[in-house]
Write a structure and sequence with these properties.
Blueprint lengths: L11 H10 L3 E5 L3 H14 L3 E6 H7 L1 H10 L8 E8 L2 H9 L4 E4 L6 H16 L4 E6 L4 E4 L2 E3 L7 H11 L3 E4 L19 H10 L5 E3 L7 H9 L12 H8 L3 E6 L1 H17 L6 H24 L6
Parallel strand pairs: 1-2, 1-10, 2-3, 3-4, 4-5, 5-8, 8-9, 9-10
Antiparallel strand pairs: 6-7
Helix pairs in contact: 2-12, 5-6, 6-7, 7-8, 9-11, 11-12
């Protein structure tokens, strides 16, 4: 199925516009009907382009057929500027399957391989994807932290700016995820004073001024959601995210896509814990899932307006 049949667009124009306007496109990870509805509701409310991120783990959970059914049921149109993106694809085969099932963007994450092998695999995906006008995101450098099966690791490695030009030239990648101090999961910083490596970001942006750059592991981890989860029986002591000011600063230096996953998970979990605790007799999933959807919608609207700066950018 072609992504245009689903009312989707690729990321090429939205990234060009974001670089020129110095804002970022939010890439919200989804994994069920509630997360999809929350993201699309926020996009419609704010008139913002958005990227629907689907990890391999989410695909295993939903399956291509169920995901396609939900996208069709959402009645997306191209003037909404919605992209369906494979997040952290680990192989050529999963990228190929995603493209054949209507994805308009795929990420091939070969960042843990030696540079030459990363280049080889990325180019293979790029050559295939471009036949279908699908955009490709790749990665140089590695992030620590854990979110799911395909995003986990204990070691981090900053992106080497001197590798970027060669990598982009030899692969033809459309965008590049870089490692400048973000991490996956809810524990992104060891202290409140820790900053991203803006020196690395600045050098990459200077070397490749038109290259769309991406930040993974950049959720803000709202303290009120962490506190709600802990108040209602959770245990997320010490969770720290990336401050809004640092993300906004990064958008001034070619960061035009920022991934958000943990914040939606926190919003979902906080709402469900609170709803079930305050209504112990309830056993109707629609009640607590509706609360979760509302909470996630609010988080997405806040991210669009106050972090990404992408409101009214359609």
């Amino acid at each position: 199925m072609k992504y245009t049949e689903l009312g989707l667009v690729n990321t090429r124009k939205m990234f060009q516009d974001a670089i020129a306007g110095k804002y970022a496109i939010p890439a919200f990870n989804i994994y069920n009907m509630e997360t999809l509805m929350a993201v699309l509701s926020a996009a419609r409310t704010t008139h913002s382009p958005v990227i629907l991120g689907i990890s391999e783990s989410a695909l295993k959970y939903m399956g291509f057929d169920m995901l396609t059914g939900m996208i069709l049921g959402a009645n997306i149109t191209q003037n909404m500027q919605i992209c369906l993106h494979l997040d952290h694809g680990s192989s050529f085969e999963i990228c190929r399957q995603a493209i054949q099932n209507g994805f308009s963007s795929v990420m091939i994450d070969a960042s843990k391989l030696p540079l030459d092998n990363n280049i080889q695999l990325t180019k293979q995906v790029v050559d295939y994807a471009h036949e279908y006008n699908v955009c490709v995101e790749s990665e140089l450098g590695t992030l620590s932290g854990i979110e799911d099966e395909t995003t986990h690791g204990t070691d981090s490695c900053y992106t080497n700016p001197s590798d970027v030009e060669r990598f982009v030239k030899q692969t033809g990648t459309d965008s590049l995820a870089i490692a400048i101090g973000t991490s996956h999961g809810a524990f992104k910083r060891t202290s409140a004073t820790q900053e991203l490596r803006f020196d690395i970001l600045s050098e990459i942006a200077e070397r490749m001024p038109n290259l769309p750059l991406v930040l993974h592991g950049a959720s803000s981890i709202p303290a009120d959601l962490v506190n709600t989860i802990n108040e209602y029986g959770g245990n997320l002591s010490g969770a720290l995210g990336i401050p809004t000011a640092q993300i906004r600063r990064a958008t001034q230096m070619n960061i035009c896509k920022v991934n958000v996953d943990s914040d939606l998970r926190l919003a979902f979990t906080a709402a469900v814990r609170k709803n079930l605790t305050e209504n112990p007799g309830n056993f109707n999933p629609r009640d607590f899932l509706s609360a979760a959807r509302t909470s996630m919608t609010d988080i997405c609207i806040n991210e669009i307006r106050n972090v990404m700066g992408s409101e009214n950018k359609l």
